[in-house]
Amino acid sequence: MTAVEFSARGRFERDRDNGFMASIDFHDRDECRVGPRLDGLGLSFLLSHLAVGAYILFGWIVSSPPALAFYLLLLPAIVTQWYVNRGSCVMNNLESWLRSGRWRDPHNPEEAGFLLMLCRWLFRIRPHPAVLDRFCYATILVLWLLAVSRFSWFAMAGA
């Protein structure tokens, strides 16, 4: 064994006798896992996230003015909670709380990284978190503007 080896977690660790040695931590297997947790709880939160995401993407098409008003209030609320919650979704926090008993779990790779996980899992790409955040905020803005234009069209048609 050489005096310097790279650890499984991407670190060098010092050995008292030989200088550096590798560190293998078997509790961190989730770091190597790509994709969501597919146990019952993980699958239910994944499906919930996908349902909310589908509503965010296609909710502006809704033809009911009260539903559009709800959508127009929902989008800024989602963006605000992302910003206040340091990029983490309340749904991820709830899953962390159910799994670990803590609202913020540093060992949950999906917390504040759900969209990064989806990009890596579905598209095999790793965008920089800041780039993905900008893309998400821009997408939400465009969707909100589409909903505003549709809502104003309903208001003009009804007047």
Structure report:
By secondary structure, the protein is mainly alpha-helical. The protein has helices spanning 40-58, 65-84, 90-100, 114-123, 129-158; strands at 13-15, 19-21. It has a two-stranded antiparallel ribbon with strand order 1-2. The radius of gyration is 21 Å and the shape is elongated. The model is unreliable at 1-15 and 20-32 (pLDDT under 50).
| Order of secondary-structure elements | EEHHHHH
Helix coverage percent of residues? 55-70%
Radius of gyration: 21 Å
Instruction: Note the beta-strand portion.
Output: under 5%
What general form does the structure show? elongated
Biggest sheet strand order reads 1-2
Q: Give the number of helices.
A: 5
Instruction: Quote the distance from N terminus to C terminus.
Output: 81 Å
Number of strands: 2
Q: What oligomeric state best describes the polypeptide chains here? A: single chain
